[in-house]
Amino acid sequence: MSTLNHYKEPEKQSHSTTSELLEYQRHDGPLNILGFWIFLATDLLLFACLFATYLVIRTHVDGGPTDKDLFEIPGFTIETILLLASSFTGSLAVYEMRHNDKKRLLGWLVVTVLLGLGFIGIEVSEFLSYIREGATMQRSAFLSAFFTLVGTHGSHVSLGIIWMISIIRQVAKYGIEPINARKVFIIGLYWHFLDIVWIFIFTVVYMTGVVS
Amino acid sequence: MNGSTQKHALFPIKNVIGFGLSLLLTFVAIALGVSHALAFGPVMMIIMGLAVLQIIVQLFFFMHFTESDGPAYHIIGLAIGIINTIAIIAGTLWIMTFNSQVH
């Protein structure tokens, strides 16, 4: 019996206990969060298929431009830094939400959206410059796989931007309460997940092209 | 919520460390790739290792991976996702490059 009592009191100061967190307070909060983790696991499988395809046909250039010809270090490095920074500011948004600071929460969400837009802007201009050089999606198996993989990630980020803007509006209107807290936490998970996928695009697509 | 005002003095040190680590891992990867100090195989092995470390940084510094309301079912879900991801990629590469190995 004393062991049961002992078990009841975990450390309070860290957030390893969720009882004090707003996003876990409604009965559906934890379910939504668990469901979203499982969605991320399935989305990972979508990217796994695209990565596998890319790796198999990476060298099938049909006499057209290769990855080494195409990829330029400054461009994809800036994209990577923008996305890493947006992942950081997204985590700061959740941090401020948990300290009940609506202004800073909104501020960091806006910064995250702006960094995301910067990332998408550079990606679109990169794609357009490839297309101008004749490296279109139809040119070779390599380019089909490249545009599909990187484009699928880019469309995820674009969707995330629209989603985050709608959450900014919700928070501005209704403040920090359990439903909005859950929404902010989940968009945060989505955003960090896209950062992880990008790190692998950076490694498998761009760095492989530079090193080979 | 209550008690939040005195907490606010705290600096988001964990997030800042996470960001620093992710930048560091990225720059090490680029430096290794650009320097051509090693052959393609070893460089890619190391850079893939750095990418895996990036996942760990995101999960533990930003995504509150250890947090859960009750049993941590999300860890099982993600683990299945990762196992299947590895199976898909490794399996595809194995099958699709088999032809070039036997000829």
Question: Brief description of this entry?
Answer:
The complex is a heterodimer of chains A (212) and B (103). In chain A, 78% of the residues lie in helices and 0% in strands. With 212 residues, chain A is an all-alpha fold.
* Shape descriptor of chain A: elongated
CATH architecture of chain A, by name, is: Up-down Bundle
Number of strands of chain A: 0
Helix content class of chain B: over 70%
CATH class value of chain A: Mainly Alpha
N-C termini distance of chain A: 64 Å
Give the topology:
The complex is a heterodimer of chains A (212) and B (103).
Chain A: H1 2-8, H2 28-57, H3 67-70, H4 73-98, H5 102-132, H6 141-174, H7 178-211
Helix pairs in contact in A: 2-6, 2-7, 4-5, 4-7, 5-6, 6-7
Chain B: H1 4-7, H2 13-35, H3 40-62, H4 73-102
Write up this protein.
The complex is a heterodimer of chains A (212) and B (103). Chain A has 212 residues and is an all-alpha fold. Helix content of chain A is 78%, strand content 0%. The longest helix of chain A is centred in the C-terminal third of the chain and has 34 residues, at 141-174. Residues 5-15 of chain A have low confidence and may be disordered. By secondary structure, chain B is mostly helical. Chain B has two domains: 12-67; 69-103. Chain B is built from four helices and no strands. Mean pLDDT of chain B is 87; it is low at 1-6. Chains A and B meet through helix 2, helix 4 and helix 7 of A and helix 2, helix 3 and helix 4 of B.
